[in-house]
């Protein structure tokens, strides 16, 4: 039996609050680099959805994530996805439902996925011999058909950032958490961290975004098992089985609660 594993997490651009499902690009590279990158609670919801009519018409959403719920509800590809989004809340059970649907899409290709809010998505090939690029292409197609990535990403965002602080505020919270726990490998100011190592600093430029992610991984290389390109990192020291590695993961995944 040919078994290989592809790991993809919903990171934006890293993990935790920054997590988004992606099939290619910087987010995938950085997921694999963390050594060992379950959701608590049974429901996540900061928006409320109410049916516009008694027969279950288009719901009206309120709360910090109302815009996201409305946008994703309007373009949801399946009745299952719309049903999950309709009430403005996402439960653990609903995450399992949408990933069951995703796995149904993957199964003909010999792929199966597991998902947790903290570790993201892992896809294993249990049959066949697809290349990594072929696997990623199928995963991308199945996410588009099921909305599993969109729904799980929204779930994580609401769990870790219930008030929907803007991205820069979350990056600043991450920096302060790293400082608080003495995790900076060398002195760097908060503004320099924001401008040179985050998506905010890239100002929407794709090349700048990639450069900032590479720079962040190099600066914090002691916490990454591989480099940006997936090569073994000789500077890796602190996995999540160490205090520093655990704190780094917690600061970068959920800085508001550390």
TrEMBL record:
Q: Which UniProt keywords apply?
A: Signal
- Signal: present as a keyword of the record? yes
Q: Which domain of life is it from?
A: Bacteria
Signal sequence, start to end: 1-38
Protein name as annotated: Lipoprotein
